[in-house]
């Protein structure tokens, strides 16, 4: 391990050998000639397929059907009280019977008592079936989507990109990024799959086309 570290550092030192001490190197063009995405089909259909591979529940609806889709999803779940970011659109919940609790700083115990959480997202990646949250509009803070056992996420069609390289320019490294690929699960212990270790056991996604 230490030998590998020294080899990497030696290459860095060699690359910076002509840079005066204390000065940062000038910006250089970095070749990015790799494919930003692979032609695996229409992005929205691919995204839905990948989500289903992860055992997430997926719905596709036009904008006018969003409120009804959210209401049906919460009713099927039996959710009586759900958390949502303070700036989540009221229209999402126009037909829902569940009580929507706006997150004004709910503590851990308060979030744990919720039947679920409803959020939007920053961007979604079709090839990996990944949803990315950055704490932006309709998403709320990170704890909001890590503590409740059920997460219903609304994804607009224009937020879906084909590959990860296309998603990165839409994100800021200064923001708290959460990358979600299906319900929370791990197989670290004796290769036994355990769900809900570090996030919701159930992920449901509404794609608005």
Furnish the topology, listing elements before pairings.
Elements: H1 2-15, H2 43-53, E1 57-61, H3 66-77, E2 81-84, E3 99-102, H4 108-112, E4 116-119, E5 123-125, E6 130-133, H5 143-146, E7 150-156, E8 160-161, H6 164-167, E9 178-180, E10 185-186, E11 194-195, E12 202-208
Question: Can you put this structure into words, describing what you see?
Answer:
The protein is 24% helix and 22% strand. The chain has 209 residues and is α/β, with parallel strands linked by helices. The strands form 3 sheets. Strands 1-12-7-4-2-3 form a 6-stranded parallel beta sheet, sandwiched between helices. Strands 8-5-6-9 form a 4-stranded mixed beta sheet. Strand 5 (123-125) and strand 6 (130-133) form a beta hairpin. The termini are far apart.
Keywords:
6-stranded parallel sheet; alpha/beta; Rossmann fold; 4-stranded mixed sheet; elongated; 209 residues; 12 strands; 22% strand
**Residues in helix, %:** 10-25%
> How much beta, percentage-wise?
15-25%
H/E topology pattern? HHEHEEHEEEHEEHEEEE
Total discrete domains:
1
Question: Uncertain segments of ≥5 residues (pLDDT<50)?
Answer: none
Specify the structural class: alpha/beta
CATH fold-level name: Rossmann fold
- The CATH superfamily label reads NagB/RpiA/CoA transferase-like
Number of distinct beta strands: 12
Mean pLDDT: 90
The CATH top-level class label: Alpha Beta
Individual helix count: 6
Rg = 21 Å
Strand numbers in spatial order across the main sheet: 1-12-7-4-2-3
Distance between the termini: 49 Å
């Amino acid at each position: 391990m230490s030998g590998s570290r020294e080899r990497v550092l030696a290459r860095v030192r060699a690359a910076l050998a002509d840079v005066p001490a204390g000065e940062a190197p000038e910006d250089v063009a970095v070749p990015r000639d790799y494919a930003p995405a692979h032609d695996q089909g229409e992005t929205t259909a691919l995204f839905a397929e990948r989500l289903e591979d992860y055992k997430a529940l997926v719905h596709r609806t036009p904008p006018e059907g969003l409120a009804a889709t959210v209401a049906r999803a919460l009713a099927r779940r039996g959710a009586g009280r759900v958390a949502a970011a303070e700036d989540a659109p009221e229209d999402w919940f126009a037909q829902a019977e569940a009580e929507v609790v706006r997150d004004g700083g709910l503590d851990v115990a308060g979030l744990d008592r919720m039947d679920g959480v409803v959020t939007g997202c920053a961007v979604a990646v079709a090839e990996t079936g990944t949803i990315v949250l950055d704490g932006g509009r309709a998403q709320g803070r990170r704890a909001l989507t890590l503590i409740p056992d059920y997460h219903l996420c609304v994804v607009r069609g224009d937020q879906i990109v084909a590959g990860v390289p296309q998603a990165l320019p839409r994100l800021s490294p200064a923001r708290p990024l959460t990358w979600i690929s299906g319900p929370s699960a791990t197989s670290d212990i004796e290769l036994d799959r355990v769900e809900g270790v570090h996030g919701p056991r159930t992920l449901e996604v509404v794609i608005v086309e």
